[in-house]
């Protein structure tokens, strides 16, 4: 069953620069260089009588023998990415498929089709494809290859084809889901622990995501108020000759702090918010993977129970049970390997993200502190000069 093949290799995915096609990765367990490079860029708006949509250029460079060319350039819209994700889920029900951004990602923070929205989505789509490319099993999926290489009309034709073996298998798993009721009787303890871990992780990451968005919103409000606060001091200085320099100095400090705040906001929107939200989506995906694994286990349990109550057709049932046992073992092995890989990637991403936030905060406060300390020092010098002049006869 190729859809549930055991995932033996391990390669933690690392962040990739969306502006470069020449980044080369070295893995701890795999010293060879990457052989598949993907970039998503050049968004274009398309307006028709029916709809308005964005397409993105997907450029692929590869040295793999199964590709007919070493370089491909195609254009894809968001619906095409959704199609690819659904095909990967059908073909590999117990592997962890990377999340896609929602149709209206960061709703309420940016307007749809604004430059900020399009750039946020472009980065997310770029990361989605590169996470698949880095995956030891998903990277060789045939639909993934077609997505990267087929022209628009060829992809459209491929989508219209009937479901294949892997797709039918996915439908079978979903059918089993409707027949399985209650908990799985023979679920291994390892998967119970994974499920418990993800329930806690999901709760914590959702809280972090909400707080981070609230912090960003409050930071934006603070920034907008600071932009009005500085100029007031400049206007005031025009009518206060004796303290004009001091007021202008305050205005200058506020302006510098305002620019530092804007940089910190950019760091939050580009680094912290997308990573936290990506793992909110990952938590939903993983809970779905656990359910699909339980569904396969449930199918086996149902057959075993049926065999215990059947006196006839025992040979047929025994053969089916043997196949299901193999299927469950393959599903377990695939999920275990993917779980270890995902967990290491998650820990690496979180460590990198929070370290980056801490460093940005440190730079921000150091910059603001230096700005105000410099202003205070200048005021102290001016005060001493005035006192000296007053003491002179």
UniProtKB/TrEMBL annotation:
CDD domains, A to Z: BAR_SNX7 (cd07666), PX_SNX7 (cd07284)
GO cellular component: early endosome; phagophore assembly site
Pfam families xrefs: PX
Gene3D superfamilies the UniProt entry points to: Arfaptin homology (AH) domain/BAR domain, Phox-like domain
Gene Ontology MF, one: phosphatidylinositol binding
Domain PX intervals: 34-155
GO biological process per UniProt: autophagy of mitochondrion; endocytic recycling; piecemeal microautophagy of the nucleus; protein transport; reticulophagy
Keywords: Protein transport, Transport
Keyword Transport carried by entry: yes
SMART domains assigned to the protein according to its UniProt record, in alphabetical order: PX
Domain of life assignment: Eukaryota
UniProt similarity note: Belongs to the sorting nexin family.
Protein name: Sorting nexin-7
Source organism (scientific name): Nipponia nippon (Crested ibis)
Lineage: Eukaryota, Metazoa, Chordata, Craniata, Vertebrata
């Amino acid at each position: 069953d190729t859809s549930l093949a055991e995932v033996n290799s391990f390669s933690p995915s690392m962040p990739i620069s969306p502006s470069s096609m020449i980044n080369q990765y070295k893995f701890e367990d795999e010293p060879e260089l990457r052989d598949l490079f993907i970039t998503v860029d050049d968004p274009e708006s398309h307006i028709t009588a029916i709809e308005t949509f964005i397409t993105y250029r997907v450029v692929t460079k590869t040295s793999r023998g199964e590709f007919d060319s070493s370089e491909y350039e195609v254009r894809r819209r968001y619906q095409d990415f959704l199609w690819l994700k659904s095909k990967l889920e059908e073909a590999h029900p117990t592997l962890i498929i990377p999340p896609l951004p929602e149709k209206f990602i960061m709703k309420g923070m940016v307007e749809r089709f604004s430059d900020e929205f399009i750039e946020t989505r472009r980065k997310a789509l770029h990361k989605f494809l590169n996470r698949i490319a880095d995956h030891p099993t998903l990277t060789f999926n045939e639909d993934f290859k077609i997505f990267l290489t087929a022209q628009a009309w060829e992809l459209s034709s491929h989508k219209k084809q009937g479901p294949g073996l892997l797709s039918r298998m996915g439908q079978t798993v979903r059918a089993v889901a409707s027949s399985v009721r209650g908990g799985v009787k023979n679920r291994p303890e390892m998967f119970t622990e994974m499920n418990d871990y993800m329930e806690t992780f999901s709760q914590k990451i959702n809280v972090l995501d909400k707080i981070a968005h609230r912090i960003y919103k409050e930071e934006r409000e603070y920034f907008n108020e600071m932009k009005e606060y500085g100029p007031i001091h400049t206007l005031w200085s025009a009518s206060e000759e004796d303290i004009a320099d001091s007021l202008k100095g305050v205005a200058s400090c506020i302006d510098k702090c305002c620019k530092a705040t804007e940089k910190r906001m950019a760091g939050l929107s580009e680094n912290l918010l997308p990573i936290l939200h990506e793992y909110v989506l990952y938590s939903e995906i993983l809970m779905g993977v656990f359910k699909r694994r339980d569904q396969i286990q449930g199918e086996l349990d149902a057959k075993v129970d049926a065999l215990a109550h059947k006196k006839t057709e025992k040979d047929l049932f025994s053969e089916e049970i043997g196949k299901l046992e193999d299927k469950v073992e393959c599903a377990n092995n695939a999920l275990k390997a993917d779980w270890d890989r995902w967990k290491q990637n998650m820990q690496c991403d979180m460590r990198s993200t929070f370290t980056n936030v801490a460093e940005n905060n440190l730079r921000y406060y150091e910059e603001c502190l230096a700005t105000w300390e410099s202003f205070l020092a200048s005021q102290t010098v001016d005060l001493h000069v005035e006192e000296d002049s007053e003491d002179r006869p």
